[in-house]
Amino acid sequence: MTDTTTPTPASAPAPVTDRYGIPVGATKGDQFSSFDVGAFEVPSHKDEIWRFTPLRRLRGIHDGSNVEATGRILVSLAEQDGLTVETVTTGDKRVGEAGAPRDRVAAQAFTAADEATIITVAKNKVIDEPVYVTVDGPGEGNVAFGHTQVRLEPFANATFVVDQRGGGTIAENAEFIVGDSAHLEVVLIQDWDDDVVHLAGHHLQVGRDATVTYTAVTFGGELVRIAPSVRYTAPGGTAHLNGLYYADDGQHIEHRLLVDHEVPNCTSRILYKGALQGDAKSNLPDAHTVWIGDVLIRSQALGTDTYEMNRNLVLTDGARADSVPNLEIETGEIAGAGHASAVGRFDEEHLFYLMSRGITEDVARRLVVRGFFGEVINRIGVPEVRDRITEAVDLELQSSGI
User: Fold this and answer.
1) Any residues with CB less than 8 A from the CB of 209 and at least 6 apart, and which?
2) Where do the structural domains in the chain lie, given as residue ranges?
3) What is the pLDDT of residues 67-117, one digit of tens each?
4) How much is the pTM?
C-alpha cells in the first residue's frame, strides 16, 4: 500500500536573511528550504537568488497570481528489465527524499503537483543501452507543475537521456538519487518551443562511492531557469556537473548551482559553457545568460576535491552573460579547490590561424564555436546525443548568419 506521508513543511515564517537569501550567520548551504510555498516570501530583485531573473516574465508562477494548473506534464518512457516506472501521489514517502525546494517557485511546484513519476533501477542492475525519457509540456497558454524522480539502487548502472519539449509555462522538481556504489549518467535536453517559461529545481543525492554525471543542455524556451543542487550522504561520492547553453534574442537562460560538500573525501567537477547571439534590428530583449556556481566545503568535509569552470562566448553586440563562481571553504584539510570563469568574444588569433590556411571566415567562425563547445559535448557518453547537440549548435550558427 502506498505510504501517503507528506514531508513535514515549515510551520514558521522564513528566518531573517541577508541579501543573498541566507539566514544571518549561516552559510550558503543553510539557505532556507521548505516543501511549503507559504513559508517563502514573494521573490524580488533584492533577493540574491532572484536578482538576475526577469520576474515580470514569469507569468505569475512566482507570486501566486497564476498557480492554477490548466494542463499536465506528460512523462513517458518504455519499461524494461530491471527498471520500474510508477505514478504516485506527492505524499509518497520517497518524494522529496533528495532535498526540499530552495525557492518559492520550486515549492509552488511541489505544492501544486498532485502526482510524481518515480523511475527505479534495481539493485545490481546494469542497463547497457540509454534510457530515453520524454517530457512534454502542457502546450502554449497552459500552466503545469510536475515532479520526477530517478532512483538507482546500490551497485546499479544506467544512463538516462531526458528530452524536454513542447510549449507552456512549467514549474517542476526533479530528483536523482544515486545509491551506494551506483553510477548514473543523465543528459537533460531543454529543447522547448519559443513560448516556454520553465523553472526547475534539480536535486542530486550521491551515496557512498557513487558517481553521477549530470549534463544540462539548453537551447529552446523564452525563459529557462535550472537550479541543480548536490548533496553527498557518505564518503567517496563523485559528481560531475556539465552544461551547454545557447541563447538568442528574447531568451533568458539561467543555471544556478549549489554543491554542498558536508561529508569527507568527496569530489565535484563542474564545467558549463554558453554562447549568446542576437540581432541589432530585433525588437526582442537582448539575449541574456546567467551562471551561478556555489560550492560549499563544510568544516567536516575533509579531503574534498572540487573545481568549477564557466566559459561564455558572446557572438554579437548587445548580448549579455553574467558568470559568478562562489567557493566557500570552512576547512583547510582538503585535496584541492578552485574556480574560474570568463566572458569573451571570438579569439581572433584562432580565426587568423584558420583563415591563413585557406578556410573562409564564416567556416572558421563555426569551427571555433564547435571547438569551444567540444569539451562539454565530448563528456556525454551517448554518441547519438553528441551528434544531435553538435547539429543543434550548427543550426544556431546558421540562423545567425555566422
Assistant:
1) 180, 181, 234, 235, 236, 237
2) 28-345, 346-402
3) 999 999 999 998 889 999 999 999 999 999 999 999 999 999 999 999 999
4) 0.90
